[in-house]
Amino acid sequence: MMVLAYEDARCLSVPALLSDSWLFTIILLSALYRPIYLAAACGGAIILTAFAYLTRGLGSADIIVIAATTAVLGTSGSLLTLLCASLSSLCWSLCTHNHRIAFIPHLLFGSTVSGLVLLLPAAQRLLN
Length: 128
What we know:
This protein is mostly helical. It has 5 helices and no strands. The chain has helices at about 1-10, 15-35, 35-55, 60-95, 105-125. It is globular, with a radius of gyration of 15 Å. The mean pLDDT is about 85.
């Protein structure tokens, strides 16, 4: 995800081969680990594709990263990721006065935050 975020921040574009192969790997791992997350990721990707088509706001790589995040973190983790990414991209846009932003770096930030939030209770159980 860091490579995708770097490419998006550098050129506001992500090579399709890179993002598609990354998503394929994530989906294979998700199908083995939690198949229900995979179903949520597919459903969310369909809804986001329709939203992106209507608003022309999200790019296809953004949808791929959100679907992969849902496949790994589940629905609640994905929603927390989107909340954190949206807030950080809003702050970035207001501070830089730039209305065209690379969203994948903000998704990386959001998925890091939500991953830590989801892992915190498990870490507390291990320590007790």
